[in-house]
Please model this.
Amino acid sequence: MATQFASPSAAVLPTADEFDRALRDASPAEVVSAALKAVGREKLALLSSFGTESATLLKVVADVDPAIPVIFLDTGWLFEETLAYRDKLIVMLGLKDVRSIKPAEETLSREDPDRDLWFSDPDACCRIRKVEPLARALGPFSAWLNGRKRFQGNARADIPVVEDDGARLKFNPFANVSREELEAIFTRAKLPRHPLAASGFRSVGCMPCTSRTTEGEDERAGRWRGRAKTECGIHTMKTS
Model:
């Protein structure tokens, strides 16, 4: 792309709207590169769940700069298969700075001592296990990347490529990609699949709130099944 952005030493970054206008037709790699050029590696982070589609964005980011920090929210309720997949991709892609962030023990003891908050109040469970830890982890950063796609529907159907996240810029490099394009990345790079994908888990989160999907269902239908909830909260409120 010919569009140039401010360097990390510049006093003022372009606004989210300015970035979005410039990058709305950019490739995922171009979006990642633009974010990196704008704020520098020390101020840019990628949030990854190491879920069923995560390998694709991790591959794109690793090809741009494998030392970009990766934030992984270890909620204490994750599948063992997800943790193993994380470790496998770290090695395969040569990721140099993956940070596993856990909830604050004090908060867990106070608000979820019996580990059943996921059942009685899943929004509160997500808040203490994902939203608050992410806000804490993003403290040193000026911008962050995530893997949401418009084709996932619901609140994600019209996400921009770049959006304002309070004190930070939030980049969605895969906003425009199709399911077919994701599959092409998996095939071209010979990326391994999440261990649970073959058994019907099309979207994988925490164990208590993740179930298999059946043919014809939305790919995220297995998340918080039977509830109106469709997001954990990290993408529905500003982190700062």
